[in-house]
Design goal:
This protein has about 160 residues and is mostly helical. A hairpin with a 3-residue loop joins strand 1 and strand 2. Helix 1 crosses helix 6. The mean pLDDT is about 85. InterPro entries: Peptidase_M50B-like. Keywords: Membrane, Transmembrane, Transmembrane helix. This is Peptidase M50B-like protein.
Length: about 160
């Protein structure tokens, strides 16, 4: 799975096929920075999410060490949960709701028709996998997301948080 994700993440034409998954992954990472900033009294100045470049959160105030580490800690925790979902059907079903909502939210910012169509396809797969062989396919889908978030994204994304 790591080799497949690495290839899809970096090969120019093919990388567009996983844009919705990249937006989910990068969006969660940046959401963790935002949450830490707000919890530590900071103010968000700018937030960007791009499937090709990564994400950035610009913050004023707050606790820099807490804000900077939150993206990686949050991604690791959610990635670990998705890895566990690869071995437990109930956890996979619960996390499928997180994934379902997480795939739809970035569509507010997306104007690319291919990404919108692919997101609808990934959502359809998510729903369909609930019913294939007692959700075994859903477990593999969650495992794929877990490998993407837990193993590869900290090394592949160029997301950043900075404090002013």
């Amino acid at each position: 799975m790591s080799v497949i994700i690495f290839g899809f993440w970096n090969v120019p034409v093919v990388r567009n096929l996983i844009n919705p998954l990249k937006l989910f992954t990068i969006g969660w990472h940046e959401l963790c920075h935002v949450t830490a900033a707000v919890l530590s009294g900071g103010r968000i100045l700018k937030l960007t999410i791009d499937p090709h470049v990564g994400g950035a959160t610009i913050v004023e105030g707050g606790s820099p060490w807490f804000i900077l580490s939150a993206g990686y800690v949050g991604s690791t925790l959610l990635g670990g949960a998705f890895l566990i979902a690869g071995w437990d059907t109930l956890v996979a079903k619960i996390l499928s709701f997180v994934l379902g909502v997480g795939l739809v939210i970035p569509l507010v910012l997306v104007r690319d028709k291919l990404t919108i169509v692919l997101t609808v396809g990934y959502e359809a797969m998510l729903v369909g996998f609930w019913f294939i062989d007692h959700a075994q396919a859903l477990r593999w889908y969650c495992l794929f997301i877990g490998v993407m978030k837990y193993v590869l994204v900290p090394h592949l994304s160029s997301g950043q948080a900075s404090t002013v």
